[in-house]
Amino acid sequence: MSVESLRERDTAAIPHPRWRLPVLGDVLGINIRTPLQNSMEIGKTLGPIFERDVLGNRFVFASGADMVAELSDESRFAKHLAPGVASLRELGGDGLFTAYNHEPNWSKAHNLLAPAFTKSAMRSYHRTMLDVAGELTEYWDRRTDGTPVDVSSDMTKLTLETIGRTGFSYSFDSFERSRPHPFVQAMVGALSHSQRTTFVKTSALGRLLTRRADRRNARNLEYLAEVVDEVIRARRGSGDTGPEDLLELMLRAAREDHPDKIDELNIRHQVVTFLVAGHETTSGALSFALYYLSRHPEVLAKARAEVDEVWGQETPEFEQIAKLRYVRRVLDESLRLWPTAPAYGREATVDTTLVGKYPMKVGDWVLVLIPALHRDPVWGDDPEAFDPDNFLPERIRSRPAHVYKPFGTGERACIGRQFAVHEAVLVLGTILRRYDIVGDPDYQLKIAERLTLMPEGFTLQLRCR
Ligand code: HEM
User: Record keywords: Oxidoreductase included (predicted)?
Assistant: First the structure.
């Protein structure tokens, strides 16, 4: 019997939205600004696997715990660059995030940069992370007069500054600016452009319609490349060897003719990749955590009591960050409800059948819809409820593996996971210890999408304790 593939088979077994139009596909009710939340809504009625056809492009979304467990099997599946990510190659080329599995620069850069993500490397970033958190509190101290602070915007300042300084010893002077650094504006423009135009551009008419936006995007890309070249130039200008950071690892390998050395263009791709991947998602994670803390006074009180007990009034040492176990659970739970990189692609590397029901040929791919996976029935009767105790060790042990994937899976999972967690817990602890935070009681959570997720328009009022 031949193996029918997801691509070719009669797709009746995989549900799709009701009103499918010829040529256009499942576009009724689509919102191009919030495709992820749109898909989550559709999944609520169609279940843990469904497809959407957008202008002839077929997407299969999977979120069932059993399916994702299988999709995590690296002997049958690997990363797939879904169209929204593939279009980011304009920005990141064959950098770590956007490299195809077969591209040699992926393994070279992965080997070269892995030492920058070990525990001892984290220890070396700790001081800088504290310094940047200190700049945030200096900035916020000037705003304790009742003026609301824009949380996502300030968290973005903080995380961009942290990755700039730890990774490249480069400061964006984020807290000295009244407006976001132009790098952030250009990056947000490029990410939004990629999200909004990926599908439209698959038709000739669509390509015509996006011409003006494409020109604007080209200017954004040019500007981003200029900033990155400036970061590299600044380092080269400062002498032969620089501090032991990501950039130095790459430049040294080139100088010493290391077998894993990467060329100039790929170094640029890696720098832009880390500047983007290294701050946008962590900023969202911090913003969601602060949102939930402001909405749950009992959680906030418990988290703060922990910080007071573990840190006291002292500057926390490296080891004292991981001791904030409850704060970590708040972060984990926020990333459960709103994983800020909300989907990843997996493709079959052998002919196979998903959960014994859906045949897939080599190259067939699906998107894992992470927020839906994180609301699978394995998470209990009320998966929408915010409950940090979901991450108590005994509760984690009671759930099957592979039901929590905010950092992706397998070989291509997030290299920056420990970095993000250390930074986020350190910053949450710093904020909780210093301020009473009050959210606007009328604020309704609204989520902006630009490949990553971010609460939009969420503000806090601060009072020094
Ligand atoms: C809360 C924060 C973060 C989240 C939720 C997150 C999430 C993810 C996810 C889901 C992937 C896999 C994507 C895929 O399979 O297509 C990924 C990959 C990646 N992340 Fe993160 N990330 C975070 C923070 C960071 C940080 C701080 C850095 C760098 C310092 C970073 C650098 C990367 C890179 C380079 C990759 C590509 C890895 C590879 O394919 O080899 N991320 N991240």
Answer: yes
